[in-house]
Amino acid sequence: MKILQIIDTLGSGGKERQLVEVLTFLSKRKDVICELIVMSDDIHYTYVDDLNIKIYQVIRKQKKDLSIFYKFYKLFDQIKPDVIHSWSSMCSIYAAFSAKLLGIRFVNGFLRDAPPNLSIKDRVWIRAKLTFPFSDKIAANTYAGLKAYNVPISKSVCLHNGFDFNRIKGLATKDLIRKKFDIQTKYVVGMVATFSDNKDYTTFINAAQSIIEYRDDVTFIAVGDGDNLESCKNLVKPEFQNRIKFLGRQKNVESIVNIFDMGILATNDKIHGEGISNTIMEYMALEKPVIATDCGGNRELVKEGKTGLLVKAEDPLEMVQKISLLLENKEMTAGLGENGRKRLEFEFNLEKMGNEFLNLYNQMKTY
Fold first, then answer.
1. Which DSSP symbol is given to 172?
2. Pairing of the two strands 262-265 and 156-158
3. Where are the alpha helices (DSSP H) in 290-349?
4. For 33, 120, 188, 230, which has the most beta carbons within 10 A of its beta carbon?
């Protein structure tokens, strides 16, 4: 069986990581041949070169490059895959029609989030409507995503992410990280996310300031970069700036998360619904209890009261209550962290994820 995967970049995002992990799993099987089309020079996961799969680069010369339709058609006809799997919305636009013309089974897999209010004004909604009729299966990494895009049940398939526990090997010591960032308090509460409109750092910062007003044993950390970073820094009162630290973009994120006592992910649910969050998976892998906005795929990853706590959007008071609850209850904190790790090991492991993809491709080949 030959599978052709298509993606716009191999940058450092979650879908790119999942694709490379799937390719790693499939490359070990003698009954599967994988080939890959990448539509840019951005290749962060360079170890894909070690997988002994053929990689084609089809670079767009401009944002809307109509020549890609013909290039894809020629490549598909040359490669003759049993299944084509697209991981990006524009890739699906370019690939869906050629796959249909050539009679090749097509998996449309660009659904990575669960938008709360999709409409004709949204670019992804238009791309979904254009490509869904030409898709044999439509894959999302959450059931919430399938529901948000109103995917027909007959075409729906959920392929949850898996977590590679090799990512948390060889971490820097906690003492080294604390010293590097001058953290002297007993407790650390952190959030790892881009400073974009999709995330709700405002609630995180307001909750942090409320807690700092009556506790002197907690430092709050924000890891990430983005357009809203400076405006978020300006929300912090001068007297709290040594206890709310903005670390910017960091390479050793797992080592930093390892010093957290709990991990936060606050989301702007007016415009964004999370898919399967890599950030939350990192928290769980490192046995950190999770406090996350109750939206999108967070509900599929975080089990309320078992692996973490879910909070209403834009509610700093509830976030203060949940953070305080965990700070004051070590047994509960440890239990949530341990359960999160176990849930990841059994429900979101790489072997299970790889087999789900393989089962899908086998089904596609036979019908």
1. P
2. unpaired
3. 298-301, 316-327, 330-347
4. 188
